[in-house]
Q: What sequence folds into this?
């Protein structure tokens, strides 16, 4: 059975039936916001899917990882070696697509050829695997400033110019951080094929594009990857740039997730009953900082109340928040903003963040609803 | 001669005559924006002064530094020992008062009892001294997560509740970073008394309040300093909080400088000649990140041009930028915003950043002028 012949539930890769499917091949889907709000750890069947090609089908016993480049002892690791020769570690980490909340940017100005992700291209799981740092150390990695670690996988992206398999890189300094894993478990289950099984990279605090699924090759090298998805895509271009003619290396390469938050309940344009309303959402400070405060406004930012923050479940995960307010009959406008532990907040408006590929929308969250 | 008897140029502590003096005792003064724009390294006579008490008068041979707390070998260091027993290092670092650009917040809503700093409570110098990490290592500092390093100085602050000498703290992880110095030189001169001589702390990337002048005591301890200026002041309170009744520890303790930028030339409300105009300013990414792009708009953010960035002179210093535009007769509105190397920009408006003590204004920079 080829992927293109799959239909109905088979084509959903075990996902919930209420996922918002952005594309079947490559498979791209996000859960409804209310499902994301229901738990701090996202169930595997609700976890967003963001892909650039058909899923490789690699049995664990066939999987191999090569590690080479600026290392003293290039090596090849089997699944058995990875899962038994290295210490195992778990990290609860939120992954987020750089295009999450693109729908708000699209409402400002069109962004041709990019999926209109709403609130759901973000999810949180417990990942388990070996530290990338330990595998790199086993290969005798050189510890020089300015090196980068490239990840390559076999999934072929038709959208790339030229067509090529997926790849990406992160700075060696991040790669050697203890939170970065070569993971083979997700929420205590074997890593599903749809999420990069048998083995994927998990780079907590970075945009999801750097957490390369089905990774089979790692190269330590002097500069960032020349792969399309590092050198040309996943870059923040100025508003006046043309993404079709942008040169490799143009714009700002996306890496750390920015301070951000969102409102998950009530949903966009929800109809609610007047009276007490519990508003729920998430906030994330990005790359190791923590969320210090979340403010909610019902009058478009003139006055604010502080939301209740759930305890931090991990340095690398979102913090869910909630606040109960009294609503009157009529239209309801809810705005939320987060502050990190250094006293920084994010920009007010998607209009000022619009960019040609629609990445990095970390404007204050805003939804409208109506109470009756 | 007592300080209170000083008048005229003596009371200026060697500063330029055109400094904008915010107070004589304690001495607080900022240079005109055009002076800041004239060089990447700020001359000592133009460097901003932000103080909370009269300047201690400590001869080098009398200065002593005690280092104690969670260390194995508490020690006392003389000036001679500090300057000869430890390796010497230089760092070019921008210091900025957390209250820089408060004037724009004051225009939104009053902030009683706080100085209306405009563009000048920020300056850049080359600092030379010993690494704090080396001195802490000599004292046998414990390397435990969560420890803090407190700095105490003899300058007495009448504004503190209760009246107390100045103190502050930083996390041990930052204190052990190579850029943090115990400095005795500023721009190759002996550190002037007005800038903390004979020896001060310099914490690049953090708000200026943590770079404690005239430091005489360092304590490694389990939590942040209980000093007024750590536990009560230099904290970001929510807009609805009352700073007079805020409890110690309330709000967000300020540490890393936020991503920020400013326009230095032309000055506020300048009258210029229509035709080509070179606009100049600075951008700073805060705590070790770098500035990737500065955008300038002449139509209040509808369209943007990219400014020319000067080469980075240090990971810890501002980057000066400039752009030459063509101006027509009439009112001129200039807006600038910066982006860091992770693709993050800062909030649009001071109105959304207003807080009861007026700290951390990192809104997009904006000035108005007129061309004729």
A:
């Amino acid at each position: 059975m080829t992927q293109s012949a799959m239909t109905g539930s088979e084509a959903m890769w075990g996902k919930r039936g209420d996922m918002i499917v952005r594309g079947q091949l490559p498979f791209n889907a996000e859960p409804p916001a209310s499902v994301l709000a229901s738990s701090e750890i996202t169930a595997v069947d609700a976890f967003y899917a963001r892909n650039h090609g058909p899923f490789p089908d690699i049995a664990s016993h066939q999987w191999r990882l090569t590690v080479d480049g600026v290392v003293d002892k290039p090596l090849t690791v089997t699944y058995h070696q990875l899962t038994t020769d290295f210490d195992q570690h778990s990290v609860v980490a939120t992954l987020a697509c750089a295009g999450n909340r693109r729908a708000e940017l699209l409402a400002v100005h069109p962004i041709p050829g990019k999926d209109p992700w709403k609130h759901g291209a973000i999810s949180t799981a417990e990942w388990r695997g070996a530290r990338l740092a330990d595998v790199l150390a086993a290969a005798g990695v050189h510890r020089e400033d300015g090196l980068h670690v490239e990840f390559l996988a076999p999934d072929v992206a038709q959208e790339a110019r030229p067509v090529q398999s997926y790849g990406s890189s992160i700075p060696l300094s991040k790669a050697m951080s203890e939170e970065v894993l070569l993971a083979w478990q997700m929420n205590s289950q074997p890593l599903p094929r749809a999420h990069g099984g048998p083995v994927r990279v998990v780079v907590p605090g970075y945009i999801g594009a750097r957490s390369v699924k089905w990774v089979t090759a790692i190269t330590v090298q002097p500069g960032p990857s020349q792969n399309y998805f590092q050198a040309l895509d996943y870059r923040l271009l100025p508003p006046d740039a043309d993404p079709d003619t942008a040169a490799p290396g143009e714009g700002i390469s996306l890496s750390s997730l920015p301070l951000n938050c969102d409102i998950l309940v009530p949903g966009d344009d929800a109809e609610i009953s007047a009276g007490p309303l519990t508003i729920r959402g998430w906030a994330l400070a990005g790359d190791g900082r923590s969320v210090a405060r979340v403010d909610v406004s019902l009058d478009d930012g003139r006055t604010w109340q502080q939301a209740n923050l759930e305890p931090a479940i991990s340095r690398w995960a979102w913090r869910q928040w909630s606040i109960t307010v009294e609503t009157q009959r009529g239209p309801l406008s809810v705005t939320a903003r987060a502050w990190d532990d250094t006293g920084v907040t994010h920009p007010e408006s998607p209009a000022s963040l619009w960019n040609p590929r629609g990445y990095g929308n970390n404007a204050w969250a805003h939804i409208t609803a109506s109470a009756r």
Notes: The longest helix of chain B spans residues 79-85. The first strand of chain B starts at residue 20 and ends at 24. Residues 26 and 348 of chain B are 33 Å apart (CA to CA).
